[in-house]
Design a protein that fits this description.
- The protein is an alpha+beta fold.
- The chain folds into two domains: 111 residues, no CATH class; 236 residues, Cytochrome P450 (Cytochrome p450, Orthogonal Bundle), CATH 1.10.630.
- The chain is built from 18 helices and six strands.
- The strands form two sheets. A four-stranded mixed β-sheet has the order 1-2-6-3. A two-stranded antiparallel sheet has the order 4-5.
- α3 packs across α12, α5 runs antiparallel to α6 and α6 packs across α13.
- The radius of gyration is 22 Å and the shape is globular.
- It holds the Pfam family p450.
- One of its GO terms (cellular component) is endoplasmic reticulum membrane.
- Its main location: endoplasmic reticulum.
């Protein structure tokens, strides 16, 4: 544990996994200095940055009950399979040219299409329509670049300073592209609902999530249901931010993980062969056969490869909270209002917790391996 000053803000950097678990499960308030920048990028608050715990819990319940529950996740396998086959065909075609190519744009479009089809029931045929990245994805990529610039360069934290840079006009245009695309998603979901229901307003005696296909439908139904307290219903701005963070989270993180995993498998041909043989054994060699959920649970080698990839390059590199009260931890006193940060990527390569931490070794996640696979492993962050 050590402290640094980030401009006028005191930050405590946590390096002990047990301290992190204790603090991030108990102290739920996000650090305002960091997450206010994320709010700006998202054009509003979402699950990722919401500090009002009751509101956070309500939004999380709405999203998980309709789109991220166990039955829903299993139903997505067919779509994952279809999009993966399209991606594999495109990559095979590129490989046959014998020329080097960048897989990231193809992986991004595949993940983008999967998110839109599974979470929103919207099929825009992204992989078949675009050879390079969609304008929405380019706009969100630029928004992320802006976010990183403002985090790394404290003088850009001031809006007045930031607006003097030459990126302001492009930023405004990108925000308009993002807003238009998300509004289009909501419009398509509403159109699908009108086709499915003869009467749009649901029977208020029923749980709307039973008939809704995704969380956007739940929100749109709830907005029209006079029996539901308005303070528990997502506003249009809430819905916009939640859709945006779900698309970015589902597309960008999977692109990075899959890209790194492809590189690791290319560099470690023995592991690649193990994964290949396991897939043939469990799933067979017919690419048109849709795998079952139980079959996917048998892909143990592939699972370890994914876990090791996420150790080396975690989906969440940094998690931050603000002490909402004075607390004692590890013999130190952290005052109220201090930012508490955990650098996940650093902890995943800390030799105190991992043997040969920079080495790609999926076998460290074998059941017979030591506790190192669970003690300091936070691939998706910690806490709400």
């Amino acid at each position: 544990m050590f402290k640094i000053w980030y401009g006028p803000k005191l930050l405590v950097i946590l390096t002990n996994p047990e301290h992190i678990r204790k603090i991030f499960q108990r102290h739920l308030r996000k650090d305002d200095q960091l997450y206010s920048l994320v709010d700006y990028a998202l054009q509003g608050k979402a699950l990722l940055t919401e500090n009002c715990v009751p509101k956070w819990k309500n939004h999380r319940k709405i999203i998980t009950r309709a789109s991220l529950n166990f039955d829903a996740l299993k139903s997505y396998i067919k779509i994952f399979h279809e999009e993966s086959n399209i991606l594999a065909d495109k990559m095979e075609s590129m490989a046959n040219t014998k020329h080097a190519f960048r897989p990231e744009p193809m992986l991004t479009l595949a993940g983008f299409s999967m998110v839109l089809r599974t979470l929103y029931g919207v099929d825009m045929r992204m992989q078949q329509t675009f050879d390079e990245e969609h304008p929405f994805l380019l706009a969100t990529e630029f928004a992320n670049k802006i976010l990183m610039d403002r985090i790394r360069k404290p003088w850009f934290l001031l809006d007045a300073t930031w607006k003097l840079t030459g990126n302001r006009r492009r930023e405004v245009k990108g925000r308009q592209i993002i807003r238009t695309f998300v509004d289009n998603i909501v419009g398509r979901v509403r159109e699908n609902m009108n086709k499915q229901f003869t009467e749009f307003i649901p029977d208020i005696s029923k749980d709307t999530s039973k008939s809704a296909q995704n969380y956007v439908e739940v929100v749109l139904q709830d907005q029209l249901n006079p029996d539901i307290p308005k303070e528990t219903v997502m506003t249009d701005d809430d819905l916009f931010s939640e859709i945006l963070v779900m698309i970015i989270g589902g597309t960008d993180t999977s692109k990075i993980t899959n890209t790194v995993m492809m590189i690791m498998l290319a560099l470690h041909s023995n592991v690649q062969e193990e994964v290949y043989e396991e897939i043939l054994t469990v799933l067979g060699n017919d690419p048109d056969t849709i795998p079952t959920y139980s079959q996917l649970q048998e892909l143990h080698t592939l699972t370890r490869v994914i876990k090791e990839t996420l150790r080396l390059v975690p989906s969440v590199h940094l998690i931050a909270r603000e002490a909402d009260e004075e607390l004692e931890i590890g013999g130190y006193t952290i005052p109220k209002g201090v930012g508490m940060y955990a650098i996940i990527s650093g902890m995943h390569r800390d030799p105190h917790y991992w043997s040969n931490p920079n080495q790609f070794n999926p076998h460290r996640f074998l059941p017979s391996a030591s506790k190192e696979s669970t003690t300091a492993y936070f691939p998706f962050g910690e806490g709400p």
